[in-house]
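Tutorial, part two.
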Amino acid sequence: MTIQAPVDAAADLYAAAEPDFEHYQVLLDIVDECLDLTLNERQSGHPGGSRSKGHLLLSTLLSGAMRWDIKRPWRRFADRFVLSAGHTVPLVYTTLAVLNEGLRARHEADGDARFAFPDDGRWALTWEDLRTFRHRGGLPGHAEMAGKTLFFKANTGPSGHGMPFAAGQALALKMAGAESVKVFAVEGEGGLTPGATHETLNSAFGLGLSNLILLIDWNDFGIDERAASTVVHGTPEDWVAPHGWRVVGTPDGMSWGPVTRTLLDVARGDNVERRPSAAWFRTRKGRGYGKVDAASHGTPHALNSPAFWAGRHAFMERYGVTYEGVDQPAPTDRAERAAQFEANLRTAISVLRRDPALVTWLSERLLAIAATVPDEIPGVRLGRSDSAGIFADPRITDASTYPAGVFKAPGERAPNRAALGTWGAWVNALAKRDYGRPLFVVASADLAESTNIAGFGKDFGDAPGFGWYERDSNPTGAVLPQEITEFTNAGIVAGMASVNFAEDPFADFDGFWGACSTYASFSYLKYGPMRLFSQLAQDTELKLGKLLWVAGHSGPETAEDSRTHFGIFETGVTQLFPSGAVIDLHPWEHNEVPVMLAAALATDVPIVALHLTRPPVEIPDRAALGMPSHFEAARGAYVLRAYRPDLPRMGTVFVRGTVTTANLVSVLAELDTRGLNVKVVAALSPQLFARQDAAYRDATAGTADRWDAMAITNGAFKLMADWVDGPVAREYSLSADWDDRWRTGGSLEEVADEAHLSAGYIVAAIERFATERESRRAALRSIADAIDSNLSAGS
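Running the prediction step on this input gives:
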């Protein structure tokens, strides 16, 4: 019997790479030149970190550490690259331009179709594209995953934002059974100081992300003049290893041998304990640029300055080329300057093109690396025709077919947050039974039960759920065991939803939808990742999943927790997006929740913000009250109480919130007794309402209704701007910020009273609003008269 020695993949890859280091160096020299030429022309961008990471990036892409396809960066089982250190984007652009030039030169030389760019070069970033750097419609100033930059797998740049996305992508791959696919996140030590990084380091250990690899450029400087080490204690080992990560590194972060050996060790070496891994590289910020450390961060040399040309001389002497305009000021004519920039880029690139041996090696090497990307992975649970059908399953988006157990009967008392848990249990149990996978993977900051998002892992009746995720025993669990990691929870679910396992990711999505929850008053902690995901969803050509952003325990209804936990103003953060980019849902009672979720998920909008409250309220007997069915909530607004035809109309009341609406419903009979003929509109979702036909919108809440109106809301008045308009509306409205002060706390009844949202205040406010209608109309007329006077004076 022959005993085979264990395979050391890292050692074998290093042995294969070592003879090619001379090629690596020539390519890096060309990349450096393209970088400096580009930043010189644009007079914007970041040379320092781009220079320091040159060895790290090229070795990652060429050594076999990363399995990727330069021609088809959308391949579902290719390793992912997340540029958390967003300032380094010029290096990535120039590196891709140089590598793509190798393919183009080879294709031009022998016509071999293997080296041709797909789709006539639509996705290939070439040196010509460097002319568009930081110009509108060109290469963005930070990493964005669209068009020629699909190499990036997240929109990044703000410090700390990339790490949670990378962790989410690694988690999606692991949960799908593709743990062999790795996610590489590149960061500097400055980017390790944000709280999001600390949160991600903890989360990645807890989730068992053995396929997450953090590459740290340790150069000790950021933007400001002082060194990072003067204010941050320790080394990368101190920063990362205590979180349970495997850490390797090299003090020679600008030498091919140590860099490549370290990269291959962290990416392809043994990881018996299956822990997330980090590699650090000691470098010098601004390597070879002529200014170093903080001075090199974000300011290129002055245009065609002596310092800029000094850097060019070394390259010209080494490779026997001459730049146009060398040692001269830049042309004053814009066209001449652009022509000089293009000519000098051609000169730098010519060093590659004139070297047939280098072109041959590079083009073959890039295709060989692409060949290591598998088309299929045994045991993968997604990316099959029988797994993606759930996204087109009409049962998910047709609330009329939901099982009775999703709803409550009239007269029962239940909080609307409970409906989220029940609906989540149903939808994921259905997904498990019929598709063998969860639809939603969810996270909460140790508030999963409190916000009811834990329901996504529970059984629904006799149908079993997926339970809680556990990295070893239950890696398909739908509820992530997160601690107090608010920001990172949002980034993780956003990263998960950006991983597409479909065979054609341009046409279809197969992956996970994500959901995260917290107190509504903490919603701002979710905004950063949500904003980046929204931008990504707007622009990328690849299909993405959806996110459910649960703002739980909203409004002064969170009474006993007091104002530190109220969501009166904070929920407005979910509106800080382009119109229609997020669907806001404000159901007031339990049965509206599943109906509105169905309607929102039926749209193509990628983010749904669901605002829920804590206290139980009685499910109304809508038929007895003459109120529309809860299924009307799918329209975003409905007339909860219509005008009486036998009385003069006195204006429209727009109501939003749980206690506010429940208290208003409780006094409807009193309004009749007092002869207050107002129309009451349940204002639930401006985005769903905007999707209704014009006739419905006009009949429910037309322009006149919005001006002849008051609001009753458990939030801030300014957050009702989609419903109530005009200069006199606030004077008559009731809102939790009626006196422009933070509320205090106490029992629900006490807080509602202080917020002027109790039944007595509601009746009084509506009576004043209705009986002063003529004075309101007069105020509006006086404004119109003033406009007419201004027009007359101007003429």
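The chain is about 40% helix and 10% strand. In part three we will examine how such features are distributed along the chain.
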